[in-house]
User: What shape does this take?
Amino acid sequence: MSEDLLLMIPGPTVVPSRVTRAMSAPILPHRGKEFSDMFVEQMDRLKKVFRTKNDVYILCGSGTAAMEASLSNTISSNDKVLCLINGKFSERFSEIASNLKANVIELQFEWGIPVNVKSVKEALDKNTDIKAVTMVFNETSTGVRNPVEEVGEIVRGTDAILIVDTISALGGDVFESDLWNVDICVSGSQKCFAMPPGLAFISVSDKAWRVIDANDSMAYYLNLKNYRKDKSHAPYTPPVSLIYGLRESLDIIDEEGLENRWERHKDMANIAREGIKALDMELFCSDEAYCSNTVTAVKAPDYLDVALLRKTLRTRFGIEIAGGQAHLKGKIFRIGHMGVISEREVNSVLTSIELVLEEM
Amino acid sequence: MSEDLLLMIPGPTVVPSRVTRAMSAPILPHRGKEFSDMFVEQMDRLKKVFRTKNDVYILCGSGTAAMEASLSNTISSNDKVLCLINGKFSERFSEIASNLKANVIELQFEWGIPVNVKSVKEALDKNTDIKAVTMVFNETSTGVRNPVEEVGEIVRGTDAILIVDTISALGGDVFESDLWNVDICVSGSQKCFAMPPGLAFISVSDKAWRVIDANDSMAYYLNLKNYRKDKSHAPYTPPVSLIYGLRESLDIIDEEGLENRWERHKDMANIAREGIKALDMELFCSDEAYCSNTVTAVKAPDYLDVALLRKTLRTRFGIEIAGGQAHLKGKIFRIGHMGVISEREVNSVLTSIELVLEEM
Assistant: This one.
């Protein structure tokens, strides 16, 4: 077995040695000019990855911290929130909103099926007082890529803001915050950025700022107004070494070119999907046009023990893939192909799965 | 000038290369057994540093995240909170409590003077419905070490819980969570643990859990109930590489011995204080018995331009010290001597300051 595990789970992903080395630099004083310049520069570079002219802030936390910030800054008790749900992470938005005592309208779709745009339009027509719509672009739990552009087109014409979680796709798959009318977009470091976990990113449109300014938020650590006040410094001590890693990760993205990176992720997803089908297995996503380009979810055939497959891949080949979450446990497995993953690694997983299946 | 800056600010501190190297290990799957075992082990080892039998949780965030968690989990609107304030960080507790719409009673003491225990007793006697008392053990902004033990003895006999920020002292100076009756204690990675910023730690007593369980918290990312639910995993993706660093940092603490580490910090503080007095300067802390053992705040003599001193130390000697915060800007400077700082570095700062003063 290889000494280092090949991480093919949908995040955290393999971290390239360039990023690891960058994170080893001595800690700079976080209030000094040298660090401040670097910090501001990375926020600016993130805008290009988000494809936005809006502010993008760097939070110290997991992606969930940014998901909470998107709601705790905009929503107060009794505010109406429309949550589009077709997986574990879109469900999380609803949990956060309920926790904030919002009036939550859940629009549920079967896991594995993309959000239905027509139902969203109906819900918004019926409830003209909806303050925010939440959705996940790339449902990590199901491998489904939801139609954010189409939902954005609808929400745009209302007073509601559109909040989108792109944690497991940004920097990997095509995503256009501004063109798609996304008001608040949240992402994280440990997926397509190929960094360790610990940073979350959040973009805020003017429409969203107006909602935030009118809202009496109880958030403190995640209060976005505190981040806007002085953009040259994080309001609370930032994780300096991870910011070094982010700079290196953005260098790598620049060198590859964002569009090329999108193309590579699409290619890897195609190889994964074709490979799975060639092994006589079915994709979990109902419609290939909506399949994720960063994670492929596969229906486990009746004869397949997912836990055993994962264990064998881990112990014999040093490859880690993911199982299913919640009610999908044992029913699907998931292969992550995001970040710096290339053909070599995707082929390696497919070959290893083939060998395990043959032996079973 | 040295290539690597010698950080003598009160956090972040110099990170030893052992910790840096540890953080370079490949990312483990955060839901797998290997990582989980390591994560649980570090939570357990932290208890020894906190000197507590209570749960200690690891959060991904700055120390402020843990400060907010200590209040957002225990306090709801209109709850009475007594905030003992004698510096910037004790002030922050009050800001967080006000943000949560608590009924905040501020007990203000002059910056540089320790909390007066008698006034605390009077305030608690007068307000028997106080739900939480907040204080900072080691006020980073003033170099004052507050009498937590004495306050703990008073709060213990009431229904209130005692919340203490030990961010800039835990693992460096003597601190006894259980003996001193501290219900919630918060700390962070980038001070006496000599790690990069990004992790916060929080301990919770049974008395505090009863308050938390009876409280209807709106927190999600920082909701401590989510952390208690399954202690074998962080509820949200933890910053894996920083956890590796924490393990190494705790190894270093074990090798030195916690009590020896306390002793070393005390020795370094004595050298710093004696050195400053030998240079004919005055300590900012009103009473040497209450001077911090991790950061020394010095009154700037009239002739001294603090900004120029800091700049000269940085550019000529590669040493970074801190200035004053808020109304103390330009009036004091602060030397951090925490984490892995030894005589070599403290002497180096003192000699360099002496040389700069002579030339001025």
User: Anything to note?
Assistant: Chain B touches chain A through 52 residues (CB under 8 Å). The longest helix of chain B spans residues 258-278. The radius of gyration of chain B is 20 Å. The mean pLDDT of chain B is 97.
